[in-house]
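Thought: the user wants the 3D structure for the chain below. I'll pass the sequence to the structure tool as-is, report back what it returns, then summarize two notable features.
Action: structure_tool
Action Input:
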Amino acid sequence: MAHSRLLKSAVAAATLLVLAVAAVVAQSGSAPNPYREDANWAKLPAAAKWGGVISVDPAANGDIWVFHRSDPPVIQFDPSGKVVKSFGVGMIVQAHGMTVDRDGNVWVTDAQIKDGKGNQVLKFSPDGKLLMSLGKAGVAGSGTDVFSGPCDVAIAQNGDIFVVV
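Observation:
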């Protein structure tokens, strides 16, 4: 008898759980989606074309940084989609990763080698001035001063630099 009561209680609990989950799913499906696509939001500089977009990162002031596989590879857009600045023309072989540090500096990784360039981590000021290069341009290897296809970079709050290879 106790076994039968326990079984009925378990079935009732499972039924209530299924009904509760179904209600949550139904409610979440009925809420309007607050997001919308705006395919023409970004206005590229004259003669520029989109390449593969590698990274999109926010700036502290609400602007948006974009790193893509075309020139200019680094573009800053204001919230309306207007270009604020762009830089890095001819400096990147293959855009691969980007981060913006707490000071607004833009760090990018260049994962391939061509014509004596690439295979580096580059740090730019928010105005596009090259501040630092890590790795040897156009050289691959393992060691403390070269990379083999750096993929991404992260900057810790204390300034430590982490490079994914």
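Final Answer: Structure generated. Strands lie at 53-58, 64-68, 74-77, 83-87, 95-100, 106-114, 117-124, 130-134, 152-155, 161-164. Confidence is low (pLDDT under 50) at residues 6-14.
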